[in-house]
Amino acid sequence: MHVYVEKRLSGPNTYDDASAYIKTQFEDLNMKKGQKEIYSHMTCATDTKNVEIVFNAVTDIIIKENLKDCGLF
User: Fold this and answer.
1) Is 57 helix (H, G, I), strand (E, B) or coil?
2) Annotated binding site for GTP: which residue ranges?
3) Which 8-state DSSP code applies to residue 3?
4) What SUPFAM superfamilies does the record point to (predicted)?
5) How wide is the angle at C-alpha 23 spanned by C-alphas 4 and 6, nearest 5°?
6) Would you list the domain boundaries of the chain?
7) For residue 40, what pLDDT band results from cuts at 50, 70 and 90?
8) pLDDT > 90 in the chain, percent
9) Rounded to the nearest 5 degrees, what angle is found at the Cα of 26, between the Cα atoms of 59 and 8?
């Protein structure tokens, strides 16, 4: 992670720490907390079960937004 991040990170350079850091970076950029939902998934694109989770999350977002636009959610 130290190669890709400008500031130095403390703690172990593990997958869990790095993925938590990346997730936090994206969530902190959300200027519409409470209005804009962010789904975070760490996945390998070749793992079809994980890709299915991501597609289901995206579908959920699209359906919710369409229902909100129609006044049904």
Assistant:
1) helix
2) 45
3) T
4) P-loop containing nucleoside triphosphate hydrolases
5) 25
6) 1-36, 39-73
7) confident
8) 10
9) 150
